[in-house]
C-alpha cells in the first residue's frame, strides 16, 4: 500500500520498507535572531528580548525546534519621556576590580582612554546571596561585608561620554541617602550603600575594590 510519512510507525514498528528513502528526516529550521529589543522597564534592572521564527517545521522524526525567544538582563537609565532616572531608583551595577586592567588595555588600544575616577561607599546592607556564590567568577562577592568601606572605579566604557561619570555613582544624592547596588553575575547579590566621597584614584585594598558596569 501507499507509504504515509508519519513517524508514529517507528514506534509501532510497521513502517514501509522504504520509509527512510520515501520519508527522509527533516529537522526544524529557524531564522536568525532579531535585533535586541529595548529594556522592558526604565529605571530598574529588567530584561531585553530577541526572537526568531520557524522557517521549516520538523517532519518524520526530525530534530525539534529550539527556543524562539531569548532574554538578557539590562538597565535603562532614562525614562520613556527622555528624562534621566533618579539615582536612588537605579542599582549601580558592579563587578570585580580585577577586570579593570583588561579594560584599560582595551581602551588604550582603541584610542578611547579617558581619565576616570573612584567613589568610596559604606556598605549598609547586602543580601545573603552574596555569601553563597559558588561559581569561581563570582567568588569576589564574598568580600562584601556590611559596614565596610569599598571603592568603585569608573572607567571607560562605563564612563558616560558627555556627562563624564558612571551611572549609579550617587552623584547628586543627599548626605546619608541609601543607594542601591547589584552585583553582576549573581542576581541574588545586591544591597544598599551610602556615598562617602569621590577620589581621583581608589585607595581600598584590592579585595574591596570594584568597577561600575
Automatic annotation (TrEMBL):
Keywords: Disulfide bond, Glycoprotein, Signal
SUPFAM superfamilies: TSP-1 type 1 repeat
Keyword Repeat appears in the UniProt entry: no
SMB domain mapped to chain residues: 1-28
Signal peptide range in chain numbering: none
Gene3D superfamilies: Thrombospondin type-1 (TSP1) repeat
UniProt-listed InterPro entries: SBSPO, SBSPON_C, Somatomedin_B_dom, TSP1_rpt, TSP1_rpt_sf, TSP1_spondin_dom
Keyword Glycoprotein attributed: yes
Name this protein carries in UniProt: SBSPO protein
Gene name of this polypeptide: Sbspon_0
